[in-house]
Amino acid sequence: MPFRFPVKFDLPQHVHINARVIRDQFKRLQYNEHEVTRNALRYIARNTELPARARLEAQLQLASMPKYTSYSQIRDRCVASGNSKSVIPDFKLNRTTFRERARHGLIPGVKVASW
Amino acid sequence: MSSFLQKLPVKARIQQLKALSASIFQENWNPANARNGSKFLRKELKGPEVVKYYGDNSAVPTFSDFKKWFPELNLTDPREVYRLKMVADRKRRNKGAPKKKKEAAKKKK
């Protein structure tokens, strides 16, 4: 069975696994690999003091880079359910899984609010 | 003292001073606010932090790691045993996972 992504990588082991989580992890790895290139191209494209032709070429090359190298494609997912909605970034948990774990006392320092 | 206040340096001279100061301290000097893209070069790389989101695989060993390290112990994962039992039960009741599309097409042919 061929690996379904262009580059082979290890699946994250201590997280809830999901097709979407795997895709997100792949995007993170690819973004890390291509970040410097993308930054350089972005700099060339946005620098008004460079010749227009160089800027245009940089812009085209940036647009032709694969979409899985873009930072905007990356989305923080819940570590317990793989859900990408209502994720609290400090805990990396979806609001429902956060509530489940907090109610069981599994999140240190978190208790039901009352004041 | 009063002569100093009457004869302040010309703006151009002050600009020269600022440009020189920036070159000495290796700072970016952009008096006309020209868009030279230096803000993209100034930022820190956030790739390494982004990759660590789903955790480090080698931080904590998993059950399969223990099985590999101690094959003579014949460890059995109770969660995996339970999962396989449920799969077998569902298959027995005719409620197993449906065939993949390719296999279904092959069977039809």
From TrEMBL, chain A:
GO terms for biological process: translation. The keyword Ribonucleoprotein applies. GO terms for molecular function: structural constituent of ribosome. GO terms for cellular component: mitochondrial small ribosomal subunit. Keywords: Ribonucleoprotein, Ribosomal protein. Belongs to the universal ribosomal protein uS14 family. This is 37S ribosomal protein MRP2, mitochondrial. It comes from Scheffersomyces spartinae.
From TrEMBL, chain B:
GO terms for cellular component: mitochondrion; ribonucleoprotein complex; ribosome. It is found in: Mitochondrion. Residues 88-109 are annotated as: Disordered. Keywords: Mitochondrion, Ribonucleoprotein, Ribosomal protein. Residues 90-109 have a biased composition (Basic residues). Belongs to the mitochondrion-specific ribosomal protein mS33 family. This is Small ribosomal subunit protein mS33. The gene is RSM27.
